[in-house]
């Protein structure tokens, strides 16, 4: 993950049940924010050091699309996306609530170092197959989140079209596509493991410092 890499776009509120659990309205167009590249951390069985003393840190398991080539108008997501992974959009939730109440940008809550752990990339199977397989997050051996791309409010095609038109999309760009319901807090020593269907798709131990 040290090679040159692209922009990290993230989509907020892309699953209706997750929007509801945080008391947010379902958006009329994709809600996009970004993380710095320094937020990335491979989920290879190692440790994620996260900031202690800043209130709750929530996990958000998300499907992550990797763009394989420069976007051209009319391209399908199957032509554009070459790989995908499952990742975590870690969030300083108390800090985010304060930022929201002030109308401030989310960077402080969403962009801290190691806030974007990412499992290994897999070949993109095509959107039809992609929609059929469930992804899942286990915390300390218990399933806490589960979802499929079919449940997204804005589909992968709608997301790439929107992000490309507004901000541009090129090779190496990532899109975190939003999280299903079940987000919750992390504690020192928690063990997180992601699954794509029945296959392990990355794991990590949390260290609060
Ligand atoms: Zn998220």
Quick structural overview:
The protein is of the alpha+beta class. The chain has six helices and 16 strands.
Characterise this structure.
It is a single chain. The chain contains six helices and 16 strands. It is of the alpha+beta class and 209 residues long. The strands form four sheets. Strands 2-1-13-6-7-10 form a six-stranded mixed β-sheet. β15 (191-196) and β16 form a beta hairpin. The longest helix is centred in the last third of the chain and has 11 residues, at 156-166. It is globular, with a radius of gyration of 16 Å. The chain starts with 7 loop residues before the first strand and ends with a strand. The structure holds zinc ion (ZN). Zinc ion (ZN) is lined by residues 10, 60, 62, 89, 176, 178-179.
Helix/strand class: alpha+beta
Bound molecules: zinc ion
Kindly report how far apart the N and C termini lie: 23 Å
What letter string, H or E per element, gives the SSE order?
EHEEEEEHEEHHEEHEEHEEEE
**Strand proportion:** 35-45%
Give the % helix: 10-25%
Count of separate DSSP helical elements: 6
Number of strands: 16
Question: What's the shape?
Answer: globular
Largest sheet: spatial strand order: 2-1-13-6-7-10
- Please give the radius of gyration in angstroms: 16 Å
Note the main sheet: 6 strands, mixed
